């Protein structure tokens, strides 16, 4: 599932490609991917301009000149592609939005969705999300207070969107590895130094993942060399049995609260 770095990469690239452009057509191939009937959805999008593209947690928000917002959550298996009739993936597209000579294809939206919402509806939809970990206001004292109120394992704490928004299976493991802490370590067992290292690791991993374009494998458009650059830089995630990059011990895969989890048994304490 795309996490914060992947959605932030999408946001930046989509802004370059589509911001301030007008939607000229909409095709709906799966009614369950949207929240209103297809006729209303099309009529409210066509001729609206995409004035801005924002991200909140794992969501993208397409701000429209009509005052409405198009809220996207890709969920598991969802991705996007910018192309045209001659250049597009040979996959089922649940929604296609045309912007002049370009088409934005939404693929794999079996669990994901595109919802058209007012500002009030959008605020209500996102109200339960925790702080943005890459926001400048997310300081160490803020993190220390947050983590100090938790009693669960680091893995389950980090993937809880009400604790921090945007982190999932991949980056929870990468952050714990960077900090040298086991993902099953309890948050209330951390000392001051460990909390500080965890905060620095959190900031460092997410910043680096965004810098290299996240771990999504599919490019956003032909010639896209940014998306997925972090895929080969993951230090533990999806590397079961491979040697640890710090100590050469094999990376272990386990399930923690039904979530696959990767870590080094030797150098994470």
UniProtKB/TrEMBL annotation:
Please list the cofactors this protein needs. Zn(2+)
The molecule here is called: Formamidopyrimidine-DNA glycosylase
Pfam short name (any one): Fapy_DNA_glyco
- Domain FPG-type, by residue range, is 235-269
Instruction: Give the source's domain of life in one word.
Output: Bacteria
Domain annotation Formamidopyrimidine-DNA glycosylase catalytic: ranges:
2-106
Q: Which GO terms describe its biological process?
A: base-excision repair
Query: What InterPro entries does the entry give?
Result: FPG_cat (IPR012319), FPG_N (IPR035937), H2TH_FPG (IPR015886), Ribosomal_uS13-like_H2TH (IPR010979), Znf_DNA_glyclase/AP_lyase (IPR000214), Znf_FPG/IleRS (IPR010663)
């Amino acid at each position: 599932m795309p996490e914060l770095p992947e959605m932030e990469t999408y946001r930046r690239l989509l802004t370059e490609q589509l911001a301030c452009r007008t939607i000229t057509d909409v095709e709906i191939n799966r009614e369950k991917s949207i929240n209103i009937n297809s006729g209303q959805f099309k009529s409210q999008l066509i001729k609206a301009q995409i004035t801005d593209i924002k991200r909140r947690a794992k969501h993208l928000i397409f701000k429209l000149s009509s005052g409405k917002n198009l809220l996207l959550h890709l969920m598991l298996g969802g991705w996007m592609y910018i192309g045209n009739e001659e250049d597009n993936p040979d996959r089922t597209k649940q929604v296609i939005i045309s912007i002049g000579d370009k088409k934005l294809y939404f693929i794999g939206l079996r669990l994901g969705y595109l919802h058209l919402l007012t500002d009030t509806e959008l605020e209500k939809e996102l109200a339960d999300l925790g702080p943005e970990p890459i926001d400048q206001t997310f300081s160490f004292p803020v993190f220390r207070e947050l983590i100090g109120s938790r009693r669960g394992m680091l893995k389950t704490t980090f993937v809880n969107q009400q604790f921090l928004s945007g982190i999932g299976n991949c980056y929870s493991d990468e952050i714990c590895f960077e900090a040298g802490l086991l993902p099953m370590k309890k948050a209330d067992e951390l000392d001051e130094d460990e909390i500080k290292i965890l905060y620095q690791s959190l900031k460092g991993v997410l910043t680096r993942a965004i810098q290299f374009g996240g771990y999504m494998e599919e490019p956003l458009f032909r010639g896209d060399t940014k998306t997925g650059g972090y895929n080969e830089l993951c230090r533990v995630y999806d590397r079961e049995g491979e040697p640890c990059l710090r100590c050469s011990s094999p990376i272990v895969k386990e399930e923690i609260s039904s979530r696959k989890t990767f870590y080094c048994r030797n150098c994470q304490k």
